[in-house]
Design a protein that fits this description.
There is one protein chain. The protein has 279 residues and is α/β, with parallel strands linked by helices. It has one domain: 3-Layer(aba) Sandwich (Rossmann fold), CATH 3.40.50.150. The strands form two sheets. Strands 3-2-1-4-5-10-6 form a seven-stranded mixed beta sheet, with helices on both faces. A three-stranded antiparallel beta sheet has the order 7-9-8, with helices on one face. The protein is globular and about 55 Å long.
Length: 279
Amino acid sequence: MNDPLRESLRGIWAAAAPAWGEHAEYVDDRGGAVEQAMLDAAELGADTRVLELACGPGGVGLAAADSVGAGGEVVMSDVASEMTEIAAQRAEARGLTNVRTAVVDMEDIDFSDASFDAVLCREGLMLVPDPAAAVREVHRVLVPGGRAVFAVWGPRDRNPWLTTLFDAITRHLGLPVPPPGMPGPFALSEFGELEGLLSAAGFHDVSVREVATPMNVSSFGEWWSVVPSLAGPVGPLLGAQPTDVRDAIRSDAEAGLDHFRTEAGYELPGLSFVGSGRH
């Protein structure tokens, strides 16, 4: 699927890969509750064949590798080779021999039918132009009885750790984040959307649960150093602004997060949906 929008998205995540690599351990720590909910829903066992889509630095796939044992296999995939290279390095550093990587477009998965026992995707489905096509592809590559598990962000107002940044950018630049026509983190944020996609693709035993994903940081500076750099196109957008504009956005965001400040730093609410279904 080579079209301008998809090529742009691939470029965005390729450019963001170094920051995701730098903050990989932080991403894994913060995503621990979602990761565990996904692994529980996937019901992985020994000798299981697993595909991780939109793997980024590979946190969920690395955890899955421990569950499937030496007789299983985990393929960590992403549309950006820059991400899979980071995931491969992390797997090698852990001495994992049951993991490999692949560059995969989740809307057009380059594996044959019934190739996997489980497919996992944390916070990637909402970032593709056609999530329904991606879910259908996942159904195709699963064996009968196989399980798919997706995690997506919940509603905007339940995730101020990110929306505060988006709102500050919009106020100062007059630009909606993400721009019209571009998929973004809250594209599947209404309850029922993920369930509907899974059911429409032919999955049964569909279940969706809420998982709290709070973000705790010691200072606003820590938040500012992490969130913009991980938020796809936001880092480059801020970097392209004059210093006074960037400083104004930062000040606006800091004021927006003040409500969540504590003596220990900032306790920022977050909410994800974890949805699963059986082939």
